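Help needed: design a sequence for this.
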């Protein structure tokens, strides 16, 4: 019998052996990964497939961020309608001199493109505050006391000056509906550290929700588990937390366990139905919320001094103060993303000051200023501001010119507007970017909504250009196809 050549095994060269067996090892590894991702139905796993039978894994289970995280939670204070930058935080002394004068200036709002307009001078005085000397108008006397903790971004731009598309873009990074909101992205990337409460909570204005409604807190093409949960704007924040009459916790536990068994049986072979999986998980979450949510939303546990600090004793500030205090209590208990809306419905029910910017912003400023300042100060004195990222702003800003003759109102402006961040790894007492001398358009350090989103993800320890979700054959990202850089200039 002829001897096999040297360096051979089983009549194969070493290279052939490694090539053939390597595919087998890879297949085993791939099968394990696919099983972990829920590729195989439960009955395949149970019958000796790629892995052992597994129980439901909570998609919101906490995950370690891939990078060093400066922030653990986000509170987004959404001023729906578009607050005017030149009447609040973007001081333009030239506007006072040009009040009621017709000048050449390019604008683009709901009224279309224009090349000239009548200047509306600011209706409030500006003063300097803090060690940083930041100019703030009399609309926000309380927030003015917090400027050394705030990073102002004066050169924001967006793709649309229309509420619906601009709202969706600010919340999901795209002017088109159907994409996950930023709260969904953060919970997808990091999970929630509190399994007894939703990871993404939304609080609306008593006048109603913003235009587009649930599109603004939707999970889009992600599983429904990641979508925002809306709290009640009036009455108890969460309904039906008490057990039905005659039901004990043990009885309810047995009932839910039975339901879960039947639901999981139904789900086998329907593993691609994210709504079904989310519904199964929601039953379990609802049970946990009955035990833990009443304490989380019970503001009676707070001191009288705290109530007064947030303005809960004042009818004017009571609503938004309540939401801000709830937001603090929720992030204190590990809720990952909380979004509060100031303004709802249409026109003067929100910051959309088309007719009279003075009347509109005086009203909404008085309702929100003290509560927002209280939130910043409260988080700071509790040692929580360093790990809680606060975002303030609307879907766009407003123009320096009048929209209608003889009416001191302003049209939408997506060419240049102001937002701010505080806490969570942000360098306080800073201002970045500039608009022109009229506040009509960004001219220095021009930024896009994608840069804002990249900054939020970066501060949460996520890589904005590598956080992806596979959908329709593509690795989708919050910041879009092109890479987006965080705003490094405002990072601590």
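Sure. Designed sequence:
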């Amino acid at each position: 019998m002829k001897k096999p050549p040297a360096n051979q095994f089983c009549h194969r060269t070493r290279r052939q052996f490694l090539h053939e067996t390597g595919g087998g090892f890879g297949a085993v590894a791939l099968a394990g990964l696919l099983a972990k991702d829920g590729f195989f139905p439960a009955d395949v796993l149970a019958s000796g497939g790629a892995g052992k039978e597994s129980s439901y894994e909570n998609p919101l289970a906490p995950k370690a961020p891939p990078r060093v995280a400066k922030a653990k939670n986000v509170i987004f204070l959404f001023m729906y309608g578009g607050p005017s930058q030149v009447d609040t935080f973007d001081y333009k002394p030239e506007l006072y001199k040009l009040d009621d004068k017709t000048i050449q200036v390019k604008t683009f709002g709901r009224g279309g493109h224009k090349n000239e307009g009548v200047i509306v001078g600011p209706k409030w005085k500006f003063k300097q505050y803090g060690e940083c000397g930041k100019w703030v108008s009399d609309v926000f006397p309380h927030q003015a006391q917090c400027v050394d903790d705030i990073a102002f971004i004066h050169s924001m731009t967006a793709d649309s000056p229309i509420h619906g598309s601009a709202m969706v873009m600010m919340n999901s990074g795209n002017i088109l509906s159907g994409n996950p909101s930023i709260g969904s992205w953060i919970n997808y990337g990091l999970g929630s550290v509190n399994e007894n409460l939703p990871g993404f909570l939304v609080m609306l204005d008593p006048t109603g929700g913003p235009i587009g409604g649930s599109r603004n807190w939707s999970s889009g093409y992600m599983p429904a588990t990641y979508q925002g949960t809306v709290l009640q704007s009036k009455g108890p924040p969460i309904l039906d937390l008490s057990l039905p009459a005659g039901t004990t916790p043990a009885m309810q536990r047995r009932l839910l366990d039975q339901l879960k068994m039947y639901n999981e049986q139904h789900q086998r072979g329907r593993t691609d139905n994210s709504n079904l999986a989310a519904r199964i998980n929601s039953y379990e979450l609802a049970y946990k919320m009955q035990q833990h949510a009443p304490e989380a939303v019970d503001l009676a546990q707070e001191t009288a001094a705290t109530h007064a600090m947030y303005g809960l004793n004042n009818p004017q500030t009571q609503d938004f103060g309540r939401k801000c205090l709830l937001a603090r209590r929720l992030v204190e208990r590990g809720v990952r993303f909380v979004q509060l809306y100031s303004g709802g419905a249409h026109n003067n029910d929100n910051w959309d000051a088309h007719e009279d910017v003075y009347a509109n912003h005086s009203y909404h400023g008085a309702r929100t200023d003290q509560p927002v300042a209280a939130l910043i100060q409260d988080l700071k004195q509790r040692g929580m501001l360093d790990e809680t990222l606060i975002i303030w702003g609307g879907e766009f800003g407003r123009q320096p010119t009048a929209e209608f003759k003889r009416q001191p109102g302003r049209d939408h402006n997506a060419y240049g507007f102001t937002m701010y961040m505080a806490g969570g790894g942000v360098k306080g007492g800073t201002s970045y970017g500039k608009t022109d001398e009229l506040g009509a358009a960004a001219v220095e350090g021009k930024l896009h909504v994608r840069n804002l989103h990249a900054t939020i993800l970066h501060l949460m320890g996520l890589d904005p250009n590598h956080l992806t979700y596979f959908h329709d054959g593509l690795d989708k990202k919050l910041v879009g196809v092109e890479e987006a850089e965080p705003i490094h200039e405002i990072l601590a």
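The longest strand covers residues 102-109.
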